[in-house]
Amino acid sequence: MKILLAEDDATSREILATQLTRLGHTVEGFVDGETAWEGFTQRKPDLVITDWIMPGIDGLELCRRIRSAPYHSYTYIIILTAMDRKVGYIDGMSSGADDFVTKPCDIVELTVRLRVAERILALQTHVNRLEGLLPICPRCKRIHTKTKSWEPVEAYFSKRTEAQFSHGICPECYETQMKPQLEMIRRRRG
Q: Which CATH class is domain 2-132?
């Protein structure tokens, strides 16, 4: 997985990045929440591991920003905390965290949590792919909607996007359908 690591303590960041890399992940570390946010917007990682308490933007604010970002794919977020997990657990979950790991990280516990993250991200990818499927009639090209009706493609997309449609005939359809019809009309007239 592509992991973004936000940890203001250089030693902790280096140790954790090394452990994650040994587990086969690609890791990029950031020294605070502000640079982590900039890194997130540029790199769109699969997973973010963030320290709870950092100068400037803390882990909770970073979570809120990630959750409010308009990206299609889901980012799994783990908050690192030196506090007992029950303290502030609701605040962390409310800001968008998926999981918590107590510092210093136990590598076995972290490995298990990363596997859970991988499963959830795989399921999310699968759901997104399924939601992206549009049942379409091969004959009339109408789309079967969630309301169980069949809607013309143009109407379907016009309601859901800002897309504008204009019509034309592709070269293949012209050669296989239009041209023979035009030739037949010319023969009848001529």
A: alpha beta
